[in-house]
Specification:
The structure is a homodimer of 333-residue chains.
Chain A (H helix, E strand, L loop, with lengths): L2 E7 L12 E7 L7 E10 L4 H5 L16 E11 L9 E7 L3 E5 L4 E3 L15 H14 L6 E5 L4 H12 L3 E6 L2 H9 L5 E4 L6 H8 L4 E6 L3 H8 L2 E9 L13 E3 L2 H7 L2 E4 L9 H13 L7 E5 L4 H8 L7 E5 L1
Parallel strand pairs in A: 8-9, 8-11, 9-10, 11-12, 12-14, 15-16
Antiparallel strand pairs in A: 1-2, 3-4, 3-6, 3-16, 4-5, 5-7
Helix pairs in contact in A: 2-3, 2-8, 5-6
């Protein structure tokens, strides 16, 4: 029987995850049963939301089990198939395990076409990343032409797509990021109207007011924490906040405190709503269609940070929390 | 020329408002012009939201001017009319000044019928209070039969109506209030399924969990602050919070801090939205019609705290922040 390398969750991280929270083991590859496929992993997606699944607090998806493989979005090649829908040599996308080789049931797998876009794009701009940006912005943000869209974590995988979709939809788009290089890239590459480096800005409230002279109508929030406090002082009447993530506080061991949002929401008849792309599976096909069309017309650009090597997956994940990625972070095997 | 007593805003309150923030003056009553009416004040509404208009921070309605009369919902009798729509001896409701007698333009005045309901009801259950409860719950809370509704400030004017409407709509209703007497009243008079005294409860998170074993689907929040923190740990997936008020923090001179809501909203795909009844004027007629129907069928009960005497209006207002009212607080002249 053949074996494969596997990355397991060894400990539930306390605060910042560490390399020692993961371990590598060698697992047996079970025999292929009727309806299953044997897959060889090509690209592995590492995402901030995986941090949530590593702790056992109740969340929108069940936690990973200790000493079992971690799973995330993966692109794999079909090595062998006992399923009539998939043929050897085809590529698939799915929620798969951090293993070099694995047997998988076919439901939940989606064929991807390497002719239409690079394989890694199906983990990013044409995958969960693009769908999160598109559906979060349109379903929760409900933007109207001419409004001002502010994006935090703007140079991240989701943020950079949100901003570009904002421009396509006719909004004024302002981004917040953490280095001058990222700020420059937001404007020159992704077409943001303005961008703010929060690490070198002393008064974020004032900086947002200057960048958004008409106030903020839609705030696409990937970070939470202090940046989002500063945004509160700049929201317009009837503004909408898309709470897509709160990476700034995911590793906090104590519950983070912030300025109370309630008085601001009452004063401005403003809304905040949590968004998780998994809640909108019925809209995924429509979203992928729209994203593919924009991509093929050259209206969407994306940045990837591609690391190499199965053994480097945990480090790539940790680097997300240091902001070491530009755009979508994937690991190529 | 005749004169009338007037209550003016003397100082913008710092923190808790004080009697010395108000002063009484004698103003002249101008001559009645074509289209105007001369009104004698019968009932004056005092409401927590007036605190907001006493400070000059930007809000949903402009601040009161210093040394000018304060205004609120008032029921008045028409003493003299130069407007064909209003006759002497009729009663009207409107946003009027804290004066014993005043001249007013007729637009913005609504006739009220003392045969259909007691005059004071038009400031409460058939006025802004009832509309806030009805429209806040239905438009933002979007309750579905069988869901659990949690109401803070439940013994207050708005809260007690919210709970009753919740029961009419087929929800499980739980209230939070600050005395055992109020808790008892919520259950015996207003039909709440459960009620919690937050002042005698050590662990609110646990108490809410016990009272809402299926979690909280709709949270109608009148108070903000620590109570609302405890609610966060009990919200269900796709739950909606109606941010109707934050009386617990209105008098804070520093911006209050709370547990960050963003991670909870993301985990639960949950929403929070500020609600102000003035944003829904187009739905007021429909709302008043529905409330009048429920009231006439005996499905809605209400409690009033009626103080007497023009000179006691400021104290009645201050007492709101001490929770000295049961239900709607009005002052009868």
């Amino acid at each position: 029987m053949n074996t494969t390398r596997t990355i397991n969750l060894k400990n539930r991280p306390k605060g910042e995850p560490k390399l020692t929270d993961f371990d590598f083991s060698t697992a047996e590859i079970p025999k292929l049963k009727e309806g299953e496929v044997l897959l060889s992993t090509e690209y592995v997606s590492v995402d901030p939301y995986l941090r949530g699944r590593m702790s056992d607090a109740p969340s929108y998806i069940p936690p990973f089990e200790l000493n079992k493989p971690i799973a995330s979005g993966i692109i794999a090649e079909v090595l062998e198939s006992k399923n009539t829908n998939f043929n050897q040599g085809e590529f698939v996308s799915g929620m798969l395990q951090w293993q070099e080789t694995q047997v998988a049931k076919a439901d939940g797998l989606m064929k991807v076409d390497p002719e239409k876009a690079p394989l890694s794009a199906y983990l990013g701009i044409l995958g969960m990343t693009g769908l999160t940006a598109y559906l979060g912005l349109t379903e929760i943000g409900k933007p109207k032409k001419g409004e001002t869209l502010l994006v935090s974590g703007a140079a991240g995988a989701v943020g950079s797509v949100v901003g570009q979709i904002g421009k396509i939809l006719g909004l004024k788009v302002v981004g917040i990021a953490g280095t001058n290089e990222k700020v420059e890239m937001l404007k020159s590459k992704f077409g943001f109207d303005e961008a703010i480096n929060y690490k070198t800005t002393e008064n974020m409230t004032e900086a947002i007011a200057n960048a958004c002279p008409d106030g903020v109508d839609v705030y696409f929030d990937n970070v939470g924490g202090e940046i989002s406090e500063a945004v509160l002082f700049n929201i317009n009447k009837f503004s909408r906040t898309v709470n897509c993530g709160a990476i700034s506080v995911y590793n906090n061991t104590e519950l983070p405190k912030s300025i109370s949002v309630q008085p601001f929401l009452v004063k401005k008849s403003s809304s905040m709503q949590g968004f998780v792309v998994f809640d909108y599976v019925d809209k995924h096909p429509e979203g992928i269609k729209q994203l593919t069309e924009w991509l093929s017309r050259g209206k969407l650009k994306y940045t990837e940070t591609i690391r190499e090597g199965f053994e480097n997956i945990p480090q790539a994940f940790l680097d997300l929390f240091e902001g070491k990625n530009k755009g979508k972070m994937v690991v190529k095997l």
